[in-house]
């Protein structure tokens, strides 16, 4: 029977291997996510938004973190593990900055979850209009912009707390300084600012 089916497929001009390839070529990377409570958010995103972490949406502060601007939570983690030195005043300032950030981002994260749930529900109910869609998307996008600003600005404020030597140490601990940053300045970066951020003389 299987042989007859394959013969028929060839007879009508359809290669079964090609047909399977065609099916695979359009298989969605989202397959399996259709049962998520909120389709646009993974559970990790939701957990991060609720806790005030910078992990949602593939990293809230990547432009800062990967360009040599330390984050307060990672500095505190390194300090608590004995890998990073802070003066008493610095420790106090980093803790305050971190707590202020969390107080700002947790409510924003919870609001984003609510807006994305409303957007998901609107599509699930099959009654959404273009006007409703625009309103919901704009609300969520506005909250996301504010959330991202707080995360990025917190990294920026860390530059006033840490010394250039500490910033260099932070980047080494985070694995960003596999080569000498003072001799390997990335294309497009301001040389003076890069050297300052990385503790170069």
Question: Explain this structure to me?
Answer:
With 201 residues, the protein is an all-alpha fold. The chain has helices at residues 2-11, 16-25, 43-51, 62-65, 72-80, 88-124, 130-158, 164-173, 191-197. Helix 3 (43-51) packs across helix 6 (88-124), helix 5 crosses helix 6 (88-124) and helix 6 runs antiparallel to helix 7. The longest helix has 37 residues, at 88-124.
Please give the structural blueprint.
Elements: H1 2-11, H2 16-25, H3 43-51, H4 62-65, H5 72-80, H6 88-124, H7 130-158, H8 164-173, H9 191-197
Helix pairs in contact: 3-6, 5-6, 6-7
Task: Fill in the keyword field for this structure.
9 helices; about 200 residues; about 0% strand; mainly alpha
Please count the beta strands (DSSP E, at least 2 residues each). 0
Beta-strand portion reads under 5%
The SSE string, one letter per element, is HHHHHHHHH
Estimate the helix proportion, in percent: 55-70%
Largest sheet: none
Name the quaternary structure.
single chain
Low-confidence stretches: 4-11
Report the total helices. Answer: 9
Q: How many angstroms does the end-to-end distance come to?
A: 78 Å
Going by helix content, strand content and strand pairing, the class is: mainly alpha
**Cα Rg:** 25 Å
Envelope shape: elongated
Mean pLDDT, nearest integer?
Answer: 85
């Amino acid at each position: 029977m299987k042989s007859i089916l394959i013969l028929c497929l060839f007879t009508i001009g359809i290669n079964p291997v090609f047909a399977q390839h065609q099916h695979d070529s359009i298989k969605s990377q989202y397959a399996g996510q259709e049962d998520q409570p909120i389709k646009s958010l993974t559970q990790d995103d939701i957990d991060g938004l609720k806790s005030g972490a910078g992990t949602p949406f593939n990293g809230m502060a990547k432009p800062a973190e990967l360009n040599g601007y330390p984050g307060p939570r990672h500095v505190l983690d390194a300090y608590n593990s004995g890998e990073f030195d802070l003066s008493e005043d610095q420790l106090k300032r980093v803790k305050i900055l971190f707590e202020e950030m969390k107080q700002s981002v947790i409510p924003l994260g919870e609001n984003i979850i609510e807006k994305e749930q409303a957007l998901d529900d609107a599509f699930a109910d099959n009654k959404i209009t273009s006007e409703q869609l625009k309103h919901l998307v704009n609300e969520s996008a506005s909250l996301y912009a504010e959330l991202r600003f707080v995360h990025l600005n917190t990294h920026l404020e860390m530059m006033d707390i840490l010394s250039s030597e500490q910033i260099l140490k932070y980047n080494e601990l985070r694995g960003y300084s596999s080569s000498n940053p003072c001799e390997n300045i990335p294309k497009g970066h301001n040389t003076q600012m890069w050297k300052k951020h990385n503790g170069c003389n």
